[in-house]
Amino acid sequence: MTLMGITLHYLAPVGPRQLRAMDSVREVYGIRRLSLDEIRHLISVEYDSSRLHPEDVRALLRSAGVDTDGVAEGVFDAG
User: Fold this and answer.
1) d(CA 63, CA 69)
2) Residue 60 exposed, middle or buried by CB count within 10 Å (0-12, 13-18, 19+)
3) Could you tell me which of 55, 71, 56, 60 has the C-alpha nearest to residue 9?
4) How would you write 1-39 as a 3-class SS string?
5) Does the structure show a pLDDT above 70 at 75?
6) Higher per-residue pLDDT: 70 or 72
7) Strands, sheet with 42-48, edge to edge from the N-terminal-most edge strand
8) Which residues lie below 8 Å from residue 43, measured CB to CB, with a gap of 6+?
9) Does residue 9 contact residue 72 with C-beta atoms inside 8 Å?
10) pLDDT higher at 76 or 1
11) Domains of the chain and any CATH numbers
């Protein structure tokens, strides 16, 4: 397992529907941790890079109703 992290800027406020959907994202094999910074509109995700790529993480967030406009703080080694 190679743990990586990515911090993304999200565009719209995250509401209860998105928070419930993000619980499903947490259960995806390869996702380790999600954290939300509602003040700065950032979401940080730790994931197993042998299972997922940054594009996969963004697609999972989009499926949960969280639209991002790009990488805010880059991809980093979370190990």
Assistant:
1) 15
2) buried
3) 71
4) CCEEEEEEEECCCCCHHHHHHHHHHHCCCCEEEEEEECC
5) no
6) 70
7) 31-37, 42-48, 3-10, 68-77
8) 7, 8, 10, 14, 34, 35, 36, 37, 61, 66, 68
9) yes
10) 1
11) 3-77 (3.30.70.100)
The C-alpha atoms of residue 19 and residue 64 are separated, in whole angstroms, by: 8
Q: What is the pLDDT of residues 5-55, one digit of tens each?
A: 999 999 899 999 999 999 999 999 999 999 999 999 999 999 999 999 999
Token pair belonging to 12: 């719209």
